[in-house]
Amino acid sequence: MSKGGAGKGGPGGAGRSGPGGAGGSGSAKGPGGGQRMMHVRVKTAAKRTSSSQRWLARQLNDPYVVASKRDGLRSRAAYKLKEIDDKYQLLKPGLRVVDLGAAPGGWSQIAADRVKSLGADPERGVPERGGQVVAIDYLGVEPLPGVTIVEMDFTAPEAEDRLKGLLRDGHADIVLSDMAAPTVGHTRTDHLRIIGLAETAAHFACDVLTPGGAFLCKVFQGGTERDLLDHLKRNFAVVRHIKPPASRADSAELYVLATGFRGEQEQQR
Ligand SMILES: C[S@@+](CC[C@H](N)C(=O)[O-])C[C@H]1O[C@@H](n2cnc3c(N)ncnc32)[C@H](O)[C@@H]1O
């Protein structure tokens, strides 16, 4: 399978049928399709701290990490979107998708495959039809077939207009956000930064989405902040929290999925 290819069958074959051919909606079998994985033991090395040794052992024995390498996907996170989409069927051919916080590109690979994105040709500008994926991150993302990449801080004042300018008709059908700011270790500060990113993403989504559109965003355990949740409930028909199987059980990570955008942003907050 071609690495990062977005052709038929998807990036590394990670289309609807899933890595390892497991298929289905985030099947409990996991990414290996129920096959047993050989446990890898990590030898101690003089230069390795015990925490880096634990991290390495976890990576080597994580079936999603193994599957992402096998399937040519850039992140284990790709399976979170895959599992959510297998269940909720958000990504359909021809849709326009914005991927916020896209590096290294796993979600964009899944999205580009499923919306059959043709990408923007710099010579011809924004395509007149077909699926589209526009991705942004302040970290560089290696080029991906079918994905228009913007290297910029999403919270920069010009970022939203830049993204809109790359979308056909200036609108999107789906806004994805897996953004996570690096933690500073101060719980209150870290919490506020996460909520701040999610709120900015939600307001952008309400600005750019077409009626019926969807917004999927990383939040953290304890669910979405009251203000943000109220805002989403006013603007979308259905709002739910999701913990996909690929999201580590010991992580506080959670996703909020808002579907059925009502069409006009309700400003009252
Ligand atoms: C968990 S990673 C995303 C992984 C990605 N979904 C994938 O599958 O490859 C979170 C990303 O959010 C990005 N990020 C955080 N804050 C951002 C901001 N203000 N603007 C743009 N990107 C941001 C980080 O640089 C990081 O690459």
How would you sum up this structure, described in words?
The chain is of the alpha/beta class and 269 residues long. It has helices at residues 50-60, 63-71, 78-88, 106-114, 159-166, 187-208, 226-235, and strands spanning 96-100, 132-137, 147-151, 172-177, 209-220, 236-242, 253-261. The protein has a seven-stranded mixed beta sheet with strand order 3-2-1-4-5-7-6, sandwiched between helices. Helix 3 (78-88) runs parallel beside helix 4 (106-114) and helix 6 (187-208) packs parallel to helix 7. 42% of the residues are buried. The protein binds S-adenosylmethionine.
The count of β-strands is 7
Q: Major sheet: size, sense and barrel closure?
A: 7 strands, mixed
Regions with little confidence, pLDDT below 50 for 5+ residues: 1-29
Number of helices: 7
Bound small-molecule species: S-adenosylmethionine
- Give the overall form: globular
The helicity comes to 25-40%
Oligomer: single chain
Distance between the termini: 48 Å
Supply Rg. 19 Å
* Strand line-up in the sheet with most strands: 3-2-1-4-5-7-6
Instruction: Tell me, rounded to a whole number, the average pLDDT.
Output: 83
Strand content: 15-25%
Helix and strand content put the structural class at: alpha/beta
Helix and strand element order:
HHHEHEEHEHEHEE
Topology:
Elements: H1 50-60, H2 63-71, H3 78-88, E1 96-100, H4 106-114, E2 132-137, E3 147-151, H5 159-166, E4 172-177, H6 187-208, E5 209-220, H7 226-235, E6 236-242, E7 253-261
Identify the notable features of this structure and list them briefly.
alpha/beta; 7 strands; 269 residues; binds S-adenosylmethionine; 7-stranded mixed sheet
